[in-house]
Amino acid sequence: MRLAQRVEQLPPYLFARISQLIAQKRAEGVDVISLGIGDPDIPTPDYLLDVLRQATADPANHRYPESDGLPQFRQAIARWYQKRHGVVLDPDKEVVPLIGSKEGIAHLPLCLIDPGDTSLITDPGYPVYEVATMFAGGVTVKVPLREEDGWLPRLDEIPAETARAAKVIWLNYPNNPTGAIADRGFYERAVAWAKQYDVVIAHDLAYADVAYDGYVPMSILEVEGAKDVAIEFNSLSKSFNMTGWRLGMAVGNATLVNALTRVKTNMDSGIPQAIQQMAIAALDDPRDTIDLHNDIYSKRRDRAITVLRQLGLRVEPPKASLYIWARLPEGERSSGEFAARLIDATGVVVTPGASYGTAGEGYIRISLTTPDDRLDEALRRLAVFAQGQPAR
Ligand SMILES: *Cc1c(COP(=O)(O)O)cnc(C)c1O
């Protein structure tokens, strides 16, 4: 049997490799605590589960859904964007529901990339942008992010010929893995740059509503003229603790939304309708879900920052996202080695920054999605380790 190149070329999925390491330690009897994976631990709110329970009883929801979702879900997304971002969307032309935003992110390159075309991706960055480009036969060019720039790309340093050749640039703020945020000025510059070079902006807004200290993330579509060049990916996963239900959306430029819808129509049959009903209820009646979750995450963030500093990591509290991105202590070079040493000495799993790209080397990522009691046990062990003793 000969597998296709695109499969042979796949790097081991980042989290799969971490999972393997965890399994190995557990087999050795270690009580492993993972701070590695960004999957909210808090259950989906009960009032939404009630909507799902009721919706399962309706036989209309037992049949094939449409690839482009229930019109009522598209309308609820448009209402949400109006209410939350002040952005007006045509629910039939500028909105398409996704089976989790990852699904749409992975399929967008099929709409834009012919063999040999390039996408610009940031380094460090969410791994799906690169792999999806490769699946479409394209090539990625990496734009480095640096701490001194607040982890925003220097768009004006991208060579003009590289910019002209690129079909799409992937941006993601609030950012995974760095927790960085972008302000209006950055988005305005990005839109102007994209128009100058005729590049599509694919903005990943997965952390739209995971923010702290009064900070409110913005949609790129809030910028004048962004719809001419941008498609934005958004999701209920992190905002409403609904990762398991696979509820995302792409919104923005009508040509791109239409192309993505046509690709999807030929590949999938959409989100189960009963689950879409849950999403409609969440968007139309979010109650205090988002604030409650953010309050829990920000308290975890503050407790974790204290201990990370004791470990000699250099770190500022993130204003958004589910992640703390911490710089290794002076003299430490390898994030992989540092993470391995932590697992060995404490059974606590963190993600090496190098897993997100070479520019992530020198950092580790900690996720705030571990239940409080387990997080506190992990922090206790790390604090003991910081005193120079084995902490298991
Ligand atoms: C979690 C995450 C996603 C995927 O979210 P789903 O909607 O659950 O597929 C996309 N992008 C980034 C940066 C993420 O961290």
The SS-based structural class is alpha/beta
| Residue runs with pLDDT of under 50 for 5 or more positions | none
Given the C-alpha coordinates, what overall shape results? globular
CATH H-tier superfamily of the largest domain? Type I PLP-dependent aspartate aminotransferase-like (Major domain)
Q: Any guess at the CATH architecture of the largest domain?
A: 3-Layer(aba) Sandwich
Just give the CATH class of the largest domain.
Alpha Beta
What do these coordinates show?
The protein is of the alpha/beta class and 392 residues long. It has two domains: 5-44 and 289-386, Aspartate Aminotransferase, domain 1 (Alpha-Beta Complex), CATH 3.90.1150; 47-284, Type I PLP-dependent aspartate aminotransferase-like (Major domain) (Aspartate Aminotransferase, domain 2, 3-Layer(aba) Sandwich), CATH 3.40.640.10. Helix content is 40%, strand content 14%. It contains 13 helices and twelve strands. Helix 3 (46-56) runs antiparallel to helix 10 and helix 5 packs across helix 9 (254-265). The protein is globular. It starts with a helix and ends in a 6-residue tail after the last helix. Bound molecules: pyridoxal-5'-phosphate.
